[in-house]
Design goal:
alpha+beta, 6 helices
Length: 176
Amino acid sequence: MEDFQQLFDAINSSRRHLAPWLNWVNKTTKPEHSLQFIQRSHDQLHDQEALALGIFFNDQVIGGIGMHEWNRDTKRAQVGYWITKEYEGRGIVMKCLIPFLEYLFETTGLNKVEIHYVSSNKRSAKVAIRLGFRLEGVIRQSAMRNGIAEDLVVTGLLRSEWNATELTEKITSKEN
């Protein structure tokens, strides 16, 4: 709860960068909205509906990662992520997603994780591909972004396809 101001500041500092992809950004107009999000996230975690986490660098909130649309009957969920403009392109989201996906597959027992993104979001497409997610389909004009209907890309990764060690080695070798 104590991070709500930092969360708001991170969103606010990258508002123009995040708003084209995330509808909730323009609805987050004051720090209290971030506090309400954290409170809702606690409730959703308690009810085993979702899991929202902050991405921190030097004890400062620089992004978020989460699991939502958790269906325990089908053992499936969606993941989402965002990072401030200042920290984009440094591999931080990938470094966070690998252990997060490992946790989702190994601890929560998920069989499938999906990433959904609008077709114009090339950065999210790149993240999904690098993690081994497969294209499952395009749902035409199913996402509204700034009043314009856009295609929604659905990608998925099965537990049987997941290999955290291989991904970590691949990312580590790219850094060196």
